Amino acid sequence: MGWGNIYKRRMKVCTVAFLIYLDYKALQQREKWTNKTKTDALWENAHKRNAKRVLGLIVELEGLWVKLGQYLSTRADVLPEAYICLLKQLQDSLPPRPLEEVCQTIQKELGKSMNELFLDFVDVPLATASIAQVHRATLLNGREVVVKVQHEGIKTIILEDLKNAKSIVDWIAWAEPQYNFNPMMDEWCKESPKELDFNHEAENTRTVAKNLGCDTKCDDNTHADRVDVLIPEVIQSTEKVLISEFMDGIRINDIEALEEFGVDKQKVVEEITRAYAHQIYVDGFFNGDPHPGNFLVSKEPPYHPILLDFGLTKKLSSSFKKALAKMFLASTEGDHVALLSAFAEMGLKLRLDIPEQAMETTSVLFRSTTPAKESHETMKSLADQRAKNMKVIQDKMQLNQKEAKRFNPVDAFPGDIVIFSRVLNLLRGLSSTMNVRIVYQEIMRPFAESVLQGNISRGPMENDHWVYDTPAHSNVEAKLRQLLVELGNNNKILGVQVCAYKDGEVIIDTAAGVLGRYDPRPVQPDSLFPVFSVTKGITAGMLHWLVDTGKLNLEEDVANIWPEFGSCGKHNIKVHHVLNHTSGLHNAVADLIEDPLLISDWEECLNRVALSEPETEPGQEQLYHYLTFGWICGGIIEHASKRKFKEILEEAFVRSLQIEGEFYIGIPPGVESRLATLTPDTEDLKKLSGIRGRPDMPSTFQPEQFATALPVLFNMLNVRRAMIPAANGHFSARALARYYAALVDGGVVPPPHSSSSKPALGSHPHIPKFPAQPSPKQQKGNRSKKIAAAFRNMGTNTYEKTTQDSKDHDIGSHSRNTSSDSNTCNASDTVLDEVVVNPNPQKDGAKIFSNPRIHDAFMGVGEYANLVKADGKFGLGFRRYYSQDGSLIGFGHSGMGGSTAFCDIKNRLSIAVTLNKMVFGAETGKIVHFICSELNIPVPADYLRFAETAPSDGKPLIN
């Protein structure tokens, strides 16, 4: 092709693109002054005009533009019908090239005459596409084949078309920044030239056929990853000629023929989708061009799909394949943490903290397909969602409308995801064209899970590093690790942390397992676990700290501290009623169950609690305030101190105990890389029915509903970041154990945590700081100083790539709340006279409490006995713990799911267990029972029944 023709080709492309752009921009202005009843007709006419322009240009120029037209013709889910109707002509065939040209290419490439190669060669091509045309032929041995022959001079044309297409995309990105297709274009420019070598396509075809089992005879269709598709066998190839097996089939877009043969279109498209799921997730090697022209359906029952044309095929690295699988599964689970982890692993970097928008965008990518007749509604829905996301970005970055248009929230976009996204879009378009509905989450899930199952071991048998490699602090810890291995091998533990202090020293600090069902990263001592009601023990401690510092009185009316709270008959509720679960507000704000995301709104929850009405008189009944406990306490804390809840938490405990980065009620941005993800134990869920109707539980507490809904809800990043003082603590076991080690000694801060625990406890900033983010190239020019300042304030993507032993990333662990059994011993009103605060605190040791009877205050005994319900399970904010003989031995709190933290006062022991697989008592009980037995100290009565020799009553451990 001469330079003159190249120049003319470029001018035609630019002219048509500019005309279409001006047409739509003019229509946007005209629409403002047009009656709304006429706007649909205006847009429809514009679509028809411009679709004709596009089709005319493609037919005239051919080359790469045909491929673009074929791609657009499959997007019936998002493109106007006018484009689909015209461009689908390109799926059939282009005008054929001269037979003489075809024969010359064959003879030149194969080095033989046509008569020496074929018994018969059909002059009329089966199809003519952008790069080649295909003829049917018969080899000398009588075998029926198809011969694919590359067009003469097409390589020069394709490479020039790529340059022109790139120029158009650059121009669109400049004129309409919200439509920046550069990542896709860059990847296409890299991959498309590979299609020009048919040796490459031949090898790709053989590889995919082998991966899908198409080159072997197998009648076993029972395997989950078995795919029922056909791929023609490759017989011979050169750079410009490809000879393969002939398979007679129906074009997949020939709806009439499919119906005539009785083909189940739904089943065919589902099987094609399964084939691509297998290629992507299992093989990491997939065809990047699934347009309708590349599919046939066999004419014999059971009507298998036939996959053709493997010129554009993408190979993924093992790590990227796993990241794609994690991204898909995180999207289906609504797991923000795993999603951000997947982004980091695949190299997709965001410029700002927008986890909700990232999840919504990913969910759109994996959404179920819609038939073509619903395309208008789909387009409108996607446009509305895009506008909503841009508004969030605009507000977060403090941009005006023009600046927001030009702001790209993605800092780095991996090329591999471009072809992956293109495949999903083409498959979605195929489904729409066939008028079938495909649920990607159902079809692709088994394949994505299979990728990670090999990486996420179900237990230590498959993972030599299942227990995190740190030195054991004691013989007890070494033996405990063996118990954890047993529990892991029985698939009862996914991820776990156990920490214990004895006499002020660390005797256990063990981490094991993985961070989540789809997150194979190891649990470390600084991992953050969501612990549900274990949080109540910290919130209660904050109220006692305010009492200890003279800012609060346990016998004071809450309404005196928090005036708004005094409405609706709550004027007689005192602080001690709240701590003792006797305020009568156990069922308040129960409507949050209907709209659970409201629990993320701190002010709204406080307002609702303040306006709620008690069901019983204060002090009359002790009924577990599973959520309202936290909001009432939180309101008291903020009003009594005149400061924010988190400020008090940091001053009272975090800084004093040196547990920065591992002790949160509502996490800050920047710790996501250390978060454990919740998953329910399906077997233990069956036990929860026994809790319903328990006399100490409020009527609105529905355990089965909570256990199934809570993992999904509390895996959401906006909920993790919310302040929910009854249930939203994110801690490491070692931070919790250190907290209770201080409480067990009456508030004396223990010596520094063990130096052999890495990363060191407290070595990370509590509120992460982010480096300034330089403005990218595309943001130069009209970028204002305000945007640069916003970058400095917002920092970079809040998902940190975790590196072991790094002292720059945050440390933290989630603890899960375990619950206590209903069959507990009665409370004792006796003062623990034999238990005294550690008389020998460390020299220069600080104290977080000065009250010498602080233990009595926690447990509601001695002079505090009149402030609690007699014989109740709870003291003043803490769960009472008893020995088998009924002696009161300590206090703590557990929560739904298995995590727990408590202390034994006489033996100066504190224990914390955090879990991410939501078991309901047994595993936690075995761990606690084992530690106490090894130390030869009383096992709390709640955990006695979980001994290996004790018969299990099947009841879950719930507060």
From TrEMBL:
Residues 751-826 are annotated as: Disordered. Residues 814-826 have a biased composition (Polar residues). Gene3D superfamilies: DD-peptidase/beta-lactamase superfamily. Residues 802-813 have a biased composition (Basic and acidic residues). Residues 89-338 form the ABC1 atypical kinase-like domain. Residues 480-762 form the Beta-lactamase-related domain. GO terms for cellular component: endoplasmic reticulum; Golgi apparatus. InterPro entries: ABC1_dom, Beta-lactam-related, Beta-lactam/transpept-like, Kinase-like_dom_sf, Mito_struct-func_regulator. It comes from the Eukaryota. This is AarF domain-containing protein kinase 1-like. It comes from Pyrus ussuriensis x Pyrus communis. The lineage of its organism: Eukaryota, Viridiplantae, Streptophyta, Embryophyta, Tracheophyta.
